[in-house]
Amino acid sequence: MNSYSSGRRSRRSRGGGRRRDNHERFRGQQEKAKPQKKTFWQRVAAFFGDGTGTKKTATATRNGAQPSRPPRKPETVEVTSPRLYVGNLSFDATESDLFELFNGVGHVQNAEVVSYRHNQRSKGFAFVQMQTIEEAKRAVQELHDKEFLGRRLVVSGAKSSEHQIRS
Q: What CATH number is attached to the domain comprising 151?
């Protein structure tokens, strides 16, 4: 270290002249390939259309939502008990609505719409207890993928036959 240095390293690196030239040359190529950045008003006009009548299709989704995924087939559970899972249920559906719907197929023992505890709003699924396993299988065959209150129902066997209560 030289006696006149302050103890800090200098900012200039060894052989920096050559590297700087390479960097500037590369940077010039990058700027040529990069399109001109649009101003705020150009972006606003492009978003709403500039009045020319040609409208671009929106590639980005609105409100930050994720792009739509291909629909996923729900897991089909074999009916081994009279207890059925009813999914994709309308939030307006009540237990009496389900009772009436499933009574058309067989005798219903119990219908329970699962809801949030703090505001009592439906979670969008329910459990229905039929009288026999045969009636439950028939309900799955007749009501699965059927339109009910504006939505296509998913009806399958419940995963566990015993009712589990979370505390």
A: 3.30.70.330
